[in-house]
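Tokens for chain A. Residues wanted.
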């Protein structure tokens, strides 16, 4: 299948939209919520092995025993390894933003489903429609008002 310039432009617009959503997610407090966004904890836990393996690899390459006292000595002599300890935090932020993007997408899908169900099946009791009982009561009041006015 031959890809046209229009297809490439569409993919580029899609990537830009995803990048924009990611940046917007970084400004959303839900991104950093441990209680509401489980991806934050997952990202933090996923990032923990990186500093451990970096120090263990250095210790093994230097022929040092696997002793925590040696690890602190490595950190003192090579402070660049301290940057590896930022990985759990960075992973928590990245995974938290991805979790926010997922939650926003799911919310948008639910809203589209609710709107679709409202417009296609307005009188059906629908669990996707949040205020279905209220809406039916309002419709009943309008019908009663119309009959009282002689319409």
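Reply:
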């Amino acid at each position: 299948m031959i890809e046209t310039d229009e297809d490439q432009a569409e993919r580029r617009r899609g990537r830009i939209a995803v990048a924009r959503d990611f940046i917007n997610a970084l400004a959303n407090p839900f991104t950093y919520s441990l209680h509401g966004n489980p991806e934050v904890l997952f990202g933090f836990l996923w990032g923990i092995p990186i500093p451990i393996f970096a120090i263990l690899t250095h210790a093994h390459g230097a022929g040092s025993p696997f002793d925590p006292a040696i690890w602190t000595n490595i950190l003192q002599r090579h402070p660049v390894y301290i940057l590896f300890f930022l990985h759990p935090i960075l992973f928590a932020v990245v995974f938290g933003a991805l979790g926010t993007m997922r939650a926003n997408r799911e919310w948008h899908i639910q809203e589209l489903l609710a709107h679709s169900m409202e417009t296609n099946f307005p009188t059906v009791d629908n669990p996707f429609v949040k205020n279905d009982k209220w809406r039916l009561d309002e419709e009943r009041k309008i019908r009663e008002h119309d009959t009282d006015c002689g319409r």
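The two ends are 61 Å apart (CA to CA). The first helix runs from residue 5 to 26.
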